[in-house]
Amino acid sequence: MIEYLISVGANVGDRAASIDRAVAAIARLPGAEVTASPLLETRPMYVTEQPNFLNGAVRARVALDPEAMLQALLAIERQLGRERGRRFGPRTIDLDIVAAGDRVIDSPTLTIPHPRMQEREFVLAPLAAIAPQWRHPTLGATVVELLDALRDAERGAAAGVS
């Protein structure tokens, strides 16, 4: 069993229902034990001309290796109507493996931990609700510490401090 941290989000259609269906599908994976975070509404990053997102996180112990887990999540996205279009654009559902225990993977198809997790409050805030003490294997910080650092940096940027 591997403990995965998965970011979930949607900004097209019935966002909450899509996330609920995705979490239910993850819970049906081999040996799955699942905990889901509360959802939060967030403004889009990178491509800002699109609807707001609902975001959350899932902590799932699953009997799949990381590559098989990636394929399972991609299949769930397809089942829920995800069509790959513009990068960072609108989506009916988005499921990203943020972490797989303390594993570090950098392959052509999978990078774990997620390479941009520490710059995304929409990932860190939901994770803090369900896995606050998970420690990033290369940065050495917990989810809560990463979230605090991000918020401190954002406050400093907003105040004009570099």
SSE diagram, text form:
Layout: E1 2-10, H1 15-27, E2 33-36, E3 40-42, E4 53-62, H2 66-79, E5 94-100, E6 105-106, E7 111-112, H3 121-130, H4 143-158
Describe it for me?
The chain is α+β, with helices and mostly antiparallel strands and 162 residues long. It has one domain (2-116): 7,8-Dihydro-6-hydroxymethylpterin-pyrophosphokinase HPPK (Alpha-Beta Plaits, 2-Layer Sandwich). 33% of the residues lie in helices and 23% in strands. It is built from 4 helices and 7 strands; from the N terminus they run βαβββαβββαα. The protein has helices at residues 15-27, 66-79, 121-130, 143-158; strands at residues 2-10, 33-36, 40-42, 53-62, 94-100, 105-106, 111-112. Strands 1, 2, 3, 4 and 5 form a 5-stranded antiparallel sheet that branches. A hairpin with a 4-residue loop joins strand 6 and strand 7. Helix 3 (121-130) runs antiparallel to helix 4 (143-158). The N and C termini lie far apart (43 Å). The model has no long low-confidence stretch (mean pLDDT 91).
* pLDDT < 50 runs, ≥5 residues: none
The helix fraction, in percent, is: 25-40%
Continuous helix count:
4
CATH topology: Alpha-Beta Plaits
Mean pLDDT: 91
CATH architecture classification: 2-Layer Sandwich
Total number of beta strands: 7
Shape: globular
Please give the CATH class. Alpha Beta
Largest sheet: 5 strands, antiparallel
